[in-house]
Amino acid sequence: MTLTLETPQLTTGSALDPADPYERRAQTFPQLTHEQVARLAMFGKQELLPSGVILFDRGQRNSDFFIVLDGAIEIFDHGEDCQPDVFIVLTARQFTGELNLFNERESLVSGRTRGETRLIRVKRADFRRMASIETDCAEIIMRAFILRRVGLIRHARGAVFLVGPAHSGDTIRLQRFLTRNAYPHRLLDTETDPDADGFIDCFEIKADQLPVVIDSRQEVLRNPSTAALADALGLTETIDPAHVYDVVVVGGGPGGLAAAVYAASEGLDTLVIEGEAPGGQAGTSSKIENYLGFPTGISGQALSGRAQVQAQKFGAKLAISRDVAGIDCCGSPLVLQLEDGGEVRAETLVIASGARYRKLDLPDYERFEGQGIHYAATAMEAALCGDEDVIVVGGGNSAGQAALFLSRKTRHVHIVVRAPDLSATMSYYLIERILGSPSITLHARTEITGLHGGDRLSGVTLTDRATDESQLLQVCNMFVMIGATPNTGWLAGCLTLDEKGFVATGAAVGGSAASPYATSLPGIFAVGDVRAGSTKRVASAVGEGSVVVSDIHRFLEAKRG
């Protein structure tokens, strides 16, 4: 194999771990055949360059795609001393790039020639055309790009430093944003990590400024908003306010991503607007086991990550960390107002904005959000719990999956539900596992009646409604999964909603039975959890998102004559 790895420094796991992409070199850094190189060469131009030429630099947008013919390309990061740290060397018939080639985000690493190098340069626009035509090569390239991003995350290459107390609500918020957007980072816990002190002293960071993010330019972002962090890291993409998209999808959950994949793959100019990260609520699920085609299950983040890449492969654009604040639906095109003051224009709109987490009505509840109260149970949250008891509130499938996942990561899990059992709201296979687990206790007909603690949650009072007896559990982390309310406030009276605030569609608004996703206004459709009467399942949302594209085509054809 022609790949050379130079002192890869692992941040987690082992160098011999077969799950490490850098140990799967034939897939992560594949060598194309001579015949494949000859085909791909028709999309680019051959160049002969001297040693040390920078081909792409960290922070650069719209970098090109390169195939080595002779010589080598060094892939490097900048170490703490700001000197180039070469960690991969690509040689004959290997290629550069990772997921940023499918979008307009900033490159995470840099590349330069090592010695005199003959290569093929494929411009960004030609790369997309190449990927759509040479499908066998595109499959190899796509797999490699995904594995390379996993490798960057695993080894903290191209990473930023997040410095702050690990249990702080703002530290958790920023870490969750970075994790869900697949951005490499290293957390330095100021409560336990001795390296954190060096950063605090070097950058003269005060305690009340924590957490901070230190980016590749050594700039310190002091407790930034997620939108500000996204802008600083180049995660956001430029939106032309004068451009009119064929389809704008509001919400990057399963339904929204499915609509984007099918719309873009059928040639529609497509934009997805997502407030935080692709995946929606499903993206926070530790494992989805009843989704068709994944017999061993798949995490919500992995599923949404694949869907995001798939949409971008077909040309859809994703505007991350951009919330929609309002809509002007009186004319054509439709105009969406963004929270940052920007505007987006669309001929058709797919509302896939899902729902927001429902909260418990308890004193001090808001004070403990992010300080012990969580709405997702992933590896990041589990790492905060250690060898402790935790509480999961809720009786749906998301609560069941969370309880099973946490039972393997914590000392004991207490499930709290108001119902007499789980049969009405949870799948049978989950109930069987929960009732059979010695690490899980079900508290039926029980409610949370009190929260206790200082800066962080330290105890929860449970009250059995059958006996009216209460008990105090010493827990520092509680996972609230009691359903959600529809995220429709931004519609501002533009559409007909049902009594609970979900978007009414189909026959409920006098629409045709052939278009169950049409809303009360032509050209606006709703799919997934936000739609009144929808089945709140990942598979259902994906199905609705894919099917609605045929309705969009019919609308656009009629509109354009």
Structural overview:
With 561 residues, this protein is an alpha/beta fold. It folds into 4 domains: 4-155, Sandwich (Jelly Rolls); 160-232, Glutaredoxin (3-Layer(aba) Sandwich); 244-356 and 489-560, FAD/NAD(P)-binding domain (3-Layer(bba) Sandwich), CATH 3.50.50; 365-480, 3-Layer(bba) Sandwich (FAD/NAD(P)-binding domain), CATH 3.50.50. The protein has 14 helices and 27 strands. The strands form 6 sheets. Strands 11, 12, 13, 14, 15, 16 and 27 form a 7-stranded mixed β-sheet that branches. The chain is globular and about 80 Å long. It starts with a strand and ends with a helix. Mean pLDDT is 91; it is low at 1-15. GO terms for molecular function: oxidoreductase activity. Pfam families: cNMP_binding, Pyr_redox_2. This is Thioredoxin reductase. Residues 1-20 are annotated as: Disordered. It comes from Methylocella silvestris (strain DSM 15510 / CIP 108128 / LMG 27833 / NCIMB 13906 / BL2).
Main features:
Glutaredoxin, 561 residues, 7-stranded mixed beta sheet, alpha/beta, Jelly Rolls, FAD/NAD(P)-binding domain
